[in-house]
Amino acid sequence: MKNIGLIAGNGRFPFLVAEEIKKNGDRVICVALKEETDPGLDKLCDKYFPVSVGKFQKIVDSLKDEGVETAVMAGQVKHVKIYSAISMDWRAIKVMGSLLNKKTDTILKTIADEFQKDGITLMPSHAYLKNLLPEKGLVAGKKLSSDEEKEVEFGFKIAKGIAGFDIGQTVVVKDRSVLAVESVEGTDECIKRAYQLGGEGSVVVKVAKPNQDFRFDVPVIGTRTVDTLKENKVRAMAVEAGVTLVLDKDEVVKKAKEAGVTIVAV
Question: CB of 118 within 8 A of CB of 60?
Fold first, then answer.
């Protein structure tokens, strides 16, 4: 039995990881980022340490004190937190001060290197959830029309391009025109902005970066995504096959069908 660290952000992702770690016969040592994590996660963990985002040394110490040598980062931490007035400890200040820029990749790779200095290796975020990565094909809803397939093909190329520049990983398109490009606001807000600009009937495409580091950055969709698609009258969403986690898939399929939204993996 091993002590596996779980550095938890928001959403359902950390809950599913904790469940799978337990099924694997290991203990869950959770550092919950107080500004993000659902406190209900406590019930699934053997040890639970709520820590503020900016207290990096306390995060490290909490894991090391429990003999953690491998850890998983799961759940979103809003990029905009970087620009907010969070209180940082000396080590967080040192890490942030060493950055060449504040791109997501730069920040997270630097953080991963800091954990490694203390003997804590970060595993891929989806290490325990490979069964939730869809293969190519229909995930939910009805088959894409010929026009929708063309929209997806167009959107996929654009999404891969912006992802390569670490801008975002989602685009919303309509009539082979880009309505919105995801930035630090996240996928849901990108979809909402697209609806304000272009109305109903758009197609959303979400991809992985060309050189995605899966230790801390995995494309994820779930029931909340479907709710956003429905509220903003999106007709279809495409995700990249084999690299995108579909959380609570049965519920996603059910809600997408009820909403009349198609989800495909390409």
Answer: yes
